[in-house]
Specification:
This protein is α+β, with helices and mostly antiparallel strands and 274 residues long. The protein is built from 4 helices and 17 strands. The chain has one domain.
């Protein structure tokens, strides 16, 4: 399920999720993050010690996150440095978070603007961005997710060994006590079940239905995963040297079509055999 967490102690807002088979996950870390346009992931480009995606001007996009572990996790997700739940800035540990069950996938389509609605992400210019409207433009061009695992409940105390229990029961019978077995201790509480809700989806765009529910979780203090993507339009990616220029692409395409051999023949003589 999808959920939001706030501070520690955590409270979360839950929304709908898609069940995901472990075989579908394509990243090596505990968490995978994809940026989707028209439902299809944008290709990742690696350069300058970072991972980039090429933004599609004016296109709406969504974020797909997959928990690749057998533990429930809470994930702080920020676009342009703004938390996708409350648009606040700050540390990931204290941020509101989305809850993802084991091997589950959620889709975040926009900033959550209330208990029942979100507004869609879309690629736009810096001066038209949500960050510019809020006056928070320090971290434009970055999508980041930090995941924390839920603390597992302690195991129940071990039951008494059978021999010891039999000896104690025999002693009770001799003394006239009831032989009813004593409780082995209070069992550990079952993990809170994930709450289902709708899928949700950088300018802040059109309003969509997206109901959320708050839940409380206890989280580990250290992150289990940290994923950061940078996005730029193609011109900026070329200027950064992450993508080749159009001229470079043409030259590279020509060279990639080169071959060592074609039809058999002799080498031509520039002097015509003289």
């Amino acid at each position: 399920m999808k959920a939001l967490i706030r501070t520690l102690p955590v409270f979360l807002i839950a929304a709908a999720v898609l069940a995901a088979s472990p075989a579908l996950a394509h990243k090596e870390d505990a968490l995978s993050l994809d940026v989707l346009v028209n439902g299809q992931p944008l290709g990742e480009i690696h350069g300058r010690n970072a991972t980039y995606i090429e933004a599609v001007r004016h296109a709406e996009y969504s974020l797909r996150l997959t928990n690749r572990t057998d533990r429930r996790m809470a994930v702080a997700v920020a676009v342009d440095g703004l938390n996708t739940i409350d648009a606040k800035t700050g540390s990931a540990g204290k941020a509101s978070k989305w809850v993802i069950g084991p091997w589950e996938t959620i889709t975040i389509e926009g900033w959550q603007i209330g208990a029942d609605n979100a507004r869609k992400f879309f690629f736009t210019s810096e001066d038209s961005s949500y960050g510019a409207w809020l006056g928070k433009t320090t971290n434009l061009g970055v999508i980041e997710a930090v995941a924390y695992r839920e603390v597992l409940p302690p195991p129940p105390p071990p039951s008494q060994p059978i021999l010891e229990r039999e000896q104690k029961n025999s002693a009770r019978m001799r003394s006239g006590e009831s032989s009813a077995p004593r409780s082995a201790g209070k069992a550990a509480p079952a993990p809170t079940e994930s709450l289902d809700d709708d899928m949700a989806a950088t300018g802040i765009g059109r309003k969509i239905d997206h109901r959320v529910t708050r839940v409380h979780l206890q989280l580990e203090s250290s992150p289990a995963a940290h994923v950061r993507l940078r996005y730029e339009y193609r011109q900026q990616l070329v200027q950064l040297g992450v993508l080749p220029s159009i001229e470079d692409e043409r030259a590279l395409a020509r060279r990639e079509n080169a071959t060592g051999f074609s039809d058999f023949d002799f080498a031509p003589d520039p002097w015509g055999g003289k």
